[in-house]
Inverse folding.
């Protein structure tokens, strides 16, 4: 089953639960159709409550909600999917837990990571990064930059790898056209949207840039 993957994805950010939920509501309200709830160090019972509220917000906007790292919570709140890092629950286990209808995303830093996902045939999209240094993520993988994306995307084309690849990690507005020109499918951002004073204007600009610069 081929699932719809949005080209612009927002990764939630905030100092506490209320801030995350406010940021999620603001992103949806400003026109972003895909949000990933990312609260890695939150207790499971607290995260369940936050995820329930995030799901209610996403439903009101008829938009996609992805839960980072917690497949069981994603299933319990009937989110649209889960995003797993390289050291989280295996994607095969997540698919067994969630079933065929849930979206499963995976994190990658190298072409070998991507080849592994493709060989397994489980993930629906790949978050490839980081583009540059970011304080959002601890234990940051080696930075790719434009050259890294270009090298990896060239190999993907040569090997006929067509899975949607989302660039992530410290991306600013001015970076979007050149990143999209490498052949990635889309962009994921966090601080860029969180900190924007005019979110609706920013999201419209991002979407325009992503679609006009796409080579897919």
């Amino acid at each position: 089953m081929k699932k719809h993957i949005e080209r612009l994805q927002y990764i939630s950010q905030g100092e506490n639960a209320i801030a995350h939920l406010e940021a999620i509501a603001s992103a949806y309200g400003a026109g972003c159709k895909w949000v990933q709830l990312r609260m890695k160090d939150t207790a499971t019972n607290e995260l369940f409550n936050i995820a329930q509220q995030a799901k209610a917000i996403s439903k009101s906007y008829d938009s996609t909600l992805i839960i980072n790292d917690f497949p069981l919570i994603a299933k319990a709140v009937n989110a649209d999917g889960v995003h797993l890092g390289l050291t989280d629950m295996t994607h095969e286990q997540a698919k067994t837990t969630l079933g065929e209808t849930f979206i499963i995303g995976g994190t990658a830093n190298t072409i070998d990571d991507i080849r592994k996902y493709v060989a397994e045939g489980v993930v629906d999209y790949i978050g490839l990064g980081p583009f540059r240094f970011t304080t959002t993520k601890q234990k940051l993988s080696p930075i790719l930059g434009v050259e890294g994306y270009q090298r990896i995307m060239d190999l993907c084309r040569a090997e006929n790898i067509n899975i949607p690849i989302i660039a992530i990690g410290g991306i600013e507005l001015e970076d979007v056209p050149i990143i999209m020109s490498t052949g990635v499918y889309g962009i994921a951002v966090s601080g860029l949207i969180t900190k924007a004073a005019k979110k609706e204007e920013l999201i419209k600009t991002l979407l325009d840039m992503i679609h006009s610069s796409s080579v897919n």
Remarks:
- The mean pLDDT is 94.
- The domain at 8-213 is CATH 3.20.20.70 (TIM Barrel).
- The chain has one domain: 8-213.
- Residues 28 and 61 are 7 Å apart (CA to CA).
